[in-house]
Design the sequence.
């Protein structure tokens, strides 16, 4: 009788499963950890690849365990196979990720297994980035910024004509800039898992609107790109706000307020500081600078989202999030710092970098200029 | 007191949630259906976009329900907000998708709510494609095949030199073909959610190996691409096997066996037929044609996977799968038909199309030639 840790999920969805095995597959696979030993149960389709690619795990054949389940008069489905496996290993109690499907947990409990929720994340050490992981994240963030260079060059090369931008003879759209960035990233073996945001004017006031249609001069264009390295599976995440042509004075002031807030936050971040302290400082700064957060014309405007989120093998991971919630940043955390201001009148402004938290402060993982106006 | 249906998940992961609302967001959102009325509870970040994009649902503000949760002395987390919402609606019992996280279900049960598993999929009607959905799937599959044209043209233009392929002056690799296909798809507003498989020779014998390094002449190259339309969110999925140059006689025979099997399966598919019947017929055909499925040199070779799977808003969905399992195909199902043969000696061959099941037979959703040799 002993405790054990079990994951039944797809490594595409479950970052802990990938972290524990360095193996990925589109479908659900079964992972078991017991007395320091790790096992993966794979179908014929994944078996050989698992033996080559998975790290530090012994590979079992799902087909064989389905046969064993049948012999043990269990259904050869996931619950039956897990029950057979646990019985063979004399395991009565398992810890699983809190995201585990409840039909699976209900099924195992009916068979008298004890099922408890593990920590979140299930592999808590994954939130503290090792030097190697930090290096992978620097690589991912550098590549993310190289795609910003692609976008900025397009804006720079564009011509302003009759309130529109023209690039290579065509009206420049959000879609075109996004395509050129993602094409560049694909060629570098980075995956645009989520579409890059290229949103101009009022569109940028919905922070998750990815943007569409013609881009316009003399107004803010938010570009937010968060690609994943296909090789390391770590994400980059960055935002810059550009304005092709001359920015209106109000937009310049708004940009300056966001830049000040972002750099103040980065200056404050260090191990031990409360995320809420940082978020509140930004809120206070915006209010004092004449950029309130409130409903205007029935729509919430101003600083309408959190300051940042943890990032790594997931785009949003622990420590989630730097916002009005109490929690302490620790050495080795990697978080985004991305204050923004959104007004339907002037448009949206957001600036985002990723930092690695140290005992004395934090390190920005890669750099890119913060320039609003593109001539 | 009344029953209700609830989903708490991200529409990016949960196709039923997208299906029910036509709204997508990266983070978890809350959906409630009661007495034919539908509600989405969205954070400030998604609220305005939800009001514009979500179909047939009333939008509630998460911030307001968090306040109500606090006033009702509930924690303002997901469990507390759901409990507050259910209490306000006088709901005691909810049906949720079976994939729902068990920590959430445990938490609600502790608060005396009854939580039961719904059907799988949660919106069962989504498996029976409407004429509009079928049209979207035809569009997706046509675009998938247009990316095969890109790949085939590259192979056709390539020159064979010293056992390698050269295209535009460079050694042609799996990565390059994949990039050119995905670049084409991105420009058409299709997302390469999963990387296209471009796998030559022995690599193709692991059906989920995406392939890497130089492609070679006179051997099989499996190309399997399954992009998603960003506009409709429906997937295409197709596989062709090519050979640049002259195919060895053994490979030609293997290809002919797979082509016969695939076309036989398509000819058999109609409403009412058992998936197992089709799968067994293919297995029998392969055995009779001298292509057994067995371990050779310790590795399982031959026809080592299922015949097909349901597809739609998910790449693998119900009816999953056409294999050794008993289940009846029904009118309106959309499934892939993709037999394959894999031998380390000759390489892998797979051919895949998508069909729409009708009362009398099935319709192939889009067409592309089946030609092994590319001169």
Sequence:
């Amino acid at each position: 009788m002993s405790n054990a840790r079990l994951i039944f999920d797809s490594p595409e969805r479950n970052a802990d499963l990938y972290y524990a095995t360095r193996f990925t597959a589109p479908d659900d696979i079964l992972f078991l950890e017991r007395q320091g030993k790790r096992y993966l149960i794979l179908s014929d389709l994944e078996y050989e690849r698992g033996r080559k690619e998975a790290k530090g795990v012994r590979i079992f054949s799902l087909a064989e365990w389905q046969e064993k389940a049948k012999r043990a008069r269990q259904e050869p489905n996931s619950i039956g196979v897990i029950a057979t496996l646990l019985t063979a290993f004399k395991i009565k109690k398992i810890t699983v990720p809190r995201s585990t499907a409840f039909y699976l947990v209900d099924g195992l409990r009916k068979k008298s297994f004890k099922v408890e929720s593990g920590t979140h994340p299930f592999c808590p050490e994954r939130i503290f980035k090792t030097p190697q992981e930090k290096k992978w994240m620097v690589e991912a963030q550098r590549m993310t910024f190289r795609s910003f260079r692609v976008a900025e060059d397009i804006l720079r090369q564009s011509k302003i004509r009759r309130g529109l931008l023209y690039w290579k003879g065509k009206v420049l759209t959000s879609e075109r800039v996004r395509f050129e960035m993602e094409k560049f990233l694909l060629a570098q073996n980075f995956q645009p898992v989520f579409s890059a945001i290229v949103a101009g004017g009022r569109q940028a006031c919905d922070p998750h609107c990815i943007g569409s249609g013609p881009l316009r001069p003399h107004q803010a264009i938010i570009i937010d790109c968060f690609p994943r390295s296909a090789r390391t599976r770590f994400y980059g995440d960055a935002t810059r706000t550009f304005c092709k042509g001359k920015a209106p004075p109000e937009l310049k002031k708004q940009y300056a307020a966001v830049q000040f807030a972002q750099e103040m936050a980065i200056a404050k971040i260090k191990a031990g500081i409360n995320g809420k302290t940082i978020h509140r400082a930004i809120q206070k700064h915006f209010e004092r600078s004449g950029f309130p957060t409130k409903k205007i014309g029935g729509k919430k405007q101003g600083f309408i989202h959190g300051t940042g989120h943890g990032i790594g093998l997931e785009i949003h991971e622990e420590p989630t999030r730097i916002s009005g919630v109490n929690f302490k940043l620790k050495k080795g955390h990697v978080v985004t710092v991305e204050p923004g201001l959104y007004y339907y009148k002037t448009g949206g402004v957001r600036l985002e970098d990723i930092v690695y938290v140290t005992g004395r402060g934090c390190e920005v993982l890669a750099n890119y200029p913060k320039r609003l106006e593109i001539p």
